[in-house]
Design brief:
The structure is a single chain. With 455 residues, the protein is of the alpha/beta class. It has helices at 8-18, 49-60, 84-90, 93-96, 108-125, 137-151, 167-177, 197-202, 225-234, 337-373, 398-406, 416-419, 440-454, and strands at 70-71, 129-130, 158-161, 183-185, 208-214, 238-243, 262-266, 282-286, 300-304, 310-314, 379-381, 389-394, 410-411, 414-415, 429-433. It folds into two domains: 66-80 and 351-454, Aspartate Aminotransferase, domain 1 (Alpha-Beta Complex); 84-346, Type I PLP-dependent aspartate aminotransferase-like (Major domain) (Aspartate Aminotransferase, domain 2, 3-Layer(aba) Sandwich), CATH 3.40.640. The chain is built from 13 helices and 15 strands. α3 (84-90) packs antiparallel against α10 (337-373) and α5 (108-125) runs parallel beside α10. The radius of gyration is 25 Å and the shape is globular.
Length: 455
């Protein structure tokens, strides 16, 4: 009765009011063949609230939480330390309950936060302008592809995807491209120490609107963005750089500096946390201000009021721009405001020096882990270079080994067989991520367990 408060008398009165003899009459237009006859096979009947709670608790005990294990998962979602002050600030009522800042006169705090967030992302990415965030990295990636099509005015429809682009991002692009005229030219990843930049460049031609490259890539390698950017620009195409680990940009050159025209990515690493897979935070920026009107999403600007006081407003992009179906600039007509605030607060607490120190510690620990794991018989480190994530080649199926290690309370990484199902050439690959939360004891635990499992 808690969730179905209507009585039979209530239902009869409602049916009488609309002139329907019974509830089945409401579905008269649904073909008989499409109707469900009886209960769904295999689905249990309803249970009490207490019974469901007990059942869900039993299921939850099967989970191995990130904080309860030696943790080496990455592939686009990373475990970093989030200061307690971040959660404290984002839970303040004026931020937690705020909605769309359409009325700038009563939303100055939210708008100022978005403006500062945009400034941080633009500087981090080496770009001129960033928007007020998107849903996550994968949808931001597609929006960048769609924007490149607008810049090309529909005259170029070939989208070249790097084989080392995160497969989930690539799949989002392919899914959305089903509703456009874009031709998606992908490729399988190559298990080589360095990314196949020359092979990617060879696929760029005069029909290409954009080239999408992950930096660092899905195997943890660092592509030569400057070289790829030059090749793309020679063919009149834009370079879209995708970054899934923003902490890396405290140690390596920003994509904008290296010639990327549009830079997108996932902001989860800074301030947001793993959160059981979401919500996350899409980052989006452009290097050239001339492209600003082609950008999707919201843009917050700084201005002065009638009295000359500093103020903030939503500018250039209006909601009406995003409710025009196929004519819309973007159908993402909101932003991940609370996650953007968490990013903003954490980045402010770090500052430039703090971000660089954090990046250096991530890299130091990753190098230490790679050196130790390389000594395990049956383990080879693929990468020549990496930031905090690298690929191991194991003497055995990585998916099975990962499952064995979970029984020892070790979350060893993400198997390439899971990321690229059906590609048997990658079955022995294991993607390992190391952050400042990883201890030397965690690395030794993983190395010792691998020795036993591989033996």
């Amino acid at each position: 009765m808690r969730y179905l408060p209507l009585t039979d008398t209530d239902r009869s009165a409602m049916l009488d009011t609309i002139g329907a003899p019974d509830i089945d009459a409401l579905f008269a237009d649904v073909p008989e063949a499409a109707r469900l006859a009886g209960s769904i096979e295999g689905l249990p009947m309803h249970a009490s609230e207490m019974a469901v709670e007990k059942h869900m608790r039993r299921l939850s005990k099967k989970n191995l939480a990130a904080s309860d294990a030696a943790f080496f998962l990455g592939a686009g979602a990373y475990k970093h330390h989030i200061p307690a002050s971040v959660d404290h600030i984002i839970q303040r009522g004026e931020f937690l309950t705020a909605y769309t800042p359409y009325q700038p006169e009563i939303a100055q705090g939210t708008l100022q936060m978005l403006f500062e967030f945009q400034s941080q992302v633009a500087r981090l990415y080496g770009c001129a302008v960033a928007n007020a965030s998107m849903y996550d990295g994968s949808t931001a990636c597609w929006e960048a592809v769609a924007m490149a099509g607008r810049v090309a005015r529909g005259k170029k429809r070939k989208v070249v995807l790097s084989g080392a682009l995160h497969p989930h991002y690539a799949e989002v692009v392919r899914t959305m491209a089903k509703f456009t005229d874009d031709e998606i030219a992908g490729a399988p990843p190559s298990l080589t120490a360095k990314p196949d930049d020359d092979g990617l460049i060879a696929r760029i031609d005069g029909d290409t609107s954009c080239v999408v490259v992950q930096y660092p890539d899905i195997l943890g390698r660092l592509p030569d963005l400057a070289k790829i950017a030059q090749a793309a620009h020679d063919q009149g195409a834009l370079l879209i750089a995708v970054n899934t680990e923003p902490v890396a940009l405290g140690a390596i050159a920003s994509p904008g500096e290296l010639g990327a025209d549009i830079v997108v990515g996932e902001g989860q690493s800074i301030g947001v946390g793993l959160q059981f897979g979401g919500p996350y935070l899409g980052l989006f920026a452009v290097r050239d201000e001339k492209h600003v009107r082609m950008m999707p999403g919201r843009l917050c600007g700084e201005t002065v009021d009638a009295e000359g006081k500093r103020g903030f407003v939503l500018t250039l992009s209006t909601r009406e721009q995003h409710i025009r179906r196929e004519k819309a600039t973007s159908n993402i007509c909101t932003n991940s405001g609370l996650c953007a605030l968490a990013f903003n607060v954490h980045m402010t607490l770090l500052g430039e020096k703090g971000l660089r120190r954090l990046a250096m510690e991530n890299h130091r620990l990753a190098c230490m882990a790679a050196d130790r794991l390389a000594k395990v018989p049956g383990v080879k480190v693929l990468n020549d270079a990496f930031f905090n994530e690298f690929t191991l080649l194991l003497d055995g199926d990585a998916r099975a080994i990962v499952r064995d290690l979970t029984k020892r309370d070790i979350l060893a990484g993400v198997s390439l067989g899971r990321l690229f199902p059906g590609n048997t050439a990658l079955a022995n690959g294991l993607l390992v991520a190391v952050t400042e939360t990883t201890t030397e004891e965690d690395v030794e635990t993983l190395a010792s367990a691998l020795e036993e499992v591989l033996a």
